[in-house]
Amino acid sequence: MADGTVILDTAGVKRALTRIAHEILERNKGVDGLVLVGIRTGGVHLAREIVARLEEIEGATVPVGEVDITLYRDDFKGHAPHLPVGKTDIPFSLETKRVVLVDDVLFTGRTIRAAMDAIMDHGRPACIQLAVLVDRGHRELPIRADFVGRNVPTSLKEKIAVLFDAANRPTDVVLEK
């Protein structure tokens, strides 16, 4: 476990993800036309957890994909270091779908902007909604989450770590000073 204060333990993470799943269903009136896309890597694991809950509640399959934002980051324009580019896997059409973009922590909004650019390169969804496990504030762009597990005001020096077990299930959320 990372050093710091546990702000969500395993049970709290499970409750937050279940609540997010219910909120997604309520906002979208079910799962028809709904797809989830997780941002690599933590968002992918959380998207799969949310999809499992959606499918359990609704008894219907919900497509889930993953997006890598490396090539869309605005902090590397023109001078990109040699970063490993991960896999984007969206094995379904996004055209006219309601996309729920999933990430672990919302901070400045730049990761979300990059992910939206990547999604738009794969098609034109009817809408994009955002689900995050933790919103820590400090936005640099006008982006807000539609579904939030926990709002955690932080200082710029603090970090939020979402921890996962060996099976990539979220276990704890830790505030690191």
Describe the structure.
- With 177 residues, the protein is α/β, with parallel strands linked by helices.
- It has helices at residues 10-28, 42-58, 110-120; strands at 5-8, 34-39, 64-67, 98-106, 127-135, 147-151, 159-164, 170-176.
- α2 links the parallel β2 (34-39) and β3.
- The model has no long low-confidence stretch (mean pLDDT 94).
Helix-strand layout with pairing:
Blueprint: E1 5-8, H1 10-28, E2 34-39, H2 42-58, E3 64-67, E4 98-106, H3 110-120, E5 127-135, E6 147-151, E7 159-164, E8 170-176
Parallel strand pairs: 2-3, 2-4, 4-5, 5-6
Antiparallel strand pairs: 1-8, 7-8
Structural domain count: 1
Which term fits the overall shape? Answer: globular
Note poorly predicted spans. none
What is the CATH class name?
Alpha Beta
Rg on CA atoms, Å: 16 Å
Termini distance?
Answer: 14 Å
Secondary-structure element string? EHEHEEHEEEE
Q: What is the CATH-assigned architecture?
A: 3-Layer(aba) Sandwich
Strand runs, count:
8
Report the CATH topology name. Answer: Rossmann fold
Mean pLDDT: 94
Q: What is the oligomer described by this structure?
A: single chain
